[in-house]
Amino acid sequence: MEVFSPLTVETQTGILNVTIKNPTSKKFPPPLTFRKMFLKSLINIVEKYGSECSDDLVEEYSRILSEQVDDNEGYFSYKINEVDTITLQENTSFVAESTTGLQTWEASKYLSEWCIKNHFVLENKSILELGSGIGLLGITVLKFCSPSKYMFSDKSWAVLNKLAANIKINFENADNLPIEQHQLVWTTMNDEDAQRLLPDVILGADLVYDADMIESLVHALKTTLLNSSSCAYIANTIRNPETNEKFLNHLGAADLIYEELKTHEKDIFVYNKSSSFKMYKISKNKINCC
């Protein structure tokens, strides 16, 4: 049985200072529901193991209970290392403003972590991200991988507008970044789009959650993999193995070559314990691809 020592007033103060009262958290507060849940859990632990709640903890909880804000809107800050934190404004509703792109999905964290650990693959490359969402993957690549150009894309202007705001949160020199934003609809992408974008590398995370979207996704991949040396890295959360298998079958039918990459250690982001991932390198030419 795990035993906790009583949490002293000093310990409670220390916990508050690195969480609710942390400067990043105060400037970019997480959703109200999350803050309430955290403080209530802390109070329960303090009381369960024989301590009294500090005045500071009680006051903080009372203050949050009185807040009146949109429960679904808030900021999430991802600590990458001792120096770097990525902060994103998100909406925790599964569907908000008619899109699923206003929150960070698990595979986006997984692919972001892979990019950090394999930054040399992306250095000085022109990169197109399909389904960028609110920007975790792209912001990570811009911070750690030194691309020559990064092209964010999504079908929703609401998502792209939120993404633009998140870029400004994370970069003081946002106007000078080598970035572009494109509204792309996979089903209508053509050779003209491919010539305009001309990426060296394509990235995509959590794009295979709906079996009905697979055909259009594969069409977009085949269209934009224009150069024989270009390739795509796609990370999928495995919710339904049959959906992932359908994706692979469509890749084969489109004469695209794919390779499943080895899993990497998940030690930067916090993940849902039930999440499992598969990641693929996709190209038209196995020999010369990036």
TrEMBL record:
SUPFAM superfamilies found in the cross-reference section: S-adenosyl-L-methionine-dependent methyltransferases
Pfam families: FAM86, Methyltransf_16
GO cellular component, one term: protein-containing complex
Superkingdom classification of source: Eukaryota
Gene3D superfamilies referenced in this protein's UniProt entry, alphabetically: Vaccinia Virus protein VP39
Keyword list, A-Z: Transferase
GO molecular-function term, one example from the UniProt record: transferase activity
FAM86 N-terminal domain residues: 14-62
Sequence similarity: Belongs to the class I-like SAM-binding methyltransferase superfamily. EEF2KMT family.
Protein name: FAM86 N-terminal domain-containing protein
Origin species: Oedothorax gibbosus
